[in-house]
Amino acid sequence: MVVDDEFQIRRALKNALREVAERVLEAGSGAEGIDLAATHHPDLVVLDLGLPDMAGAEVCREIRRFASMPIVVLSARHSEEDKVSLLSLGADDYVTKPFSTVELLARVKAQLRRARTQLIAPTEAPIVAGDLTFEVGRRSVTKSGEPVRLTPIEWNIVLALVMHAGRTLTHQQLFDAVWGREFGDPQRYLRVHITNLRRKIETSPSSPKYVVTEPGVGYRFEMP
Predict the structure, then answer these.
(1) Do 217 and 80 meet the contact criterion of CB atoms below 8 Å apart?
(2) Matching CATH number, 2-119, of 1.10.10.1100, 3.40.50.2300, 3.40.50.450, 3.90.1310.10
(3) Which of 63, 114, 134, 214 could staple 127 via S-S, CB 3.0–4.6 A?
(4) What pLDDT is recorded for position 122?
(5) pLDDT 10s digits, 51-60
């Protein structure tokens, strides 16, 4: 479903999304988007923040009250604060305008792939990402068949990222998932552990392909 008040953008997105969708619903307002999401339960929502009747953030919040489908936000706002706020409200990805339909389509495919994997893959099944294999039940990871020794904190960080592969997790979301407390400096705590984690699982830690930084926002695990 595409929620945008501009007809031309809705039509362009609808044409682009036909590559991955049998049907694309359109909503020109936030209220209509919420109603359609509740009625039709689309596999994914592309949500523009600049809506005429209500804030896009409020639409995101309302949809998250009853649905878990991926939400990809479109916005002309580029600030890190806006990105952190939307991701904290439950958005799964954030694309700034102007954007290319090629980039948007790639992000949509990644979110659909993640959502379908979560539906069909039992947690005890190994998760394979390139040369990495994660076995959740055994709390183990191998690289090219060789075991990688992670600390408990490193394991908890990479597990949170892998289980939400393709989705940027904010510093605070990761901090809460790993440490489970509200005090402390999330960025400072995470920076050291992410550096050590990259040294162990990345072929080139200085140019990571798995654990990717979203500057000022958080981290994302990229599936090859």
Answers:
(1) yes
(2) 3.40.50.2300
(3) 134
(4) 52
(5) 999 999 999 9
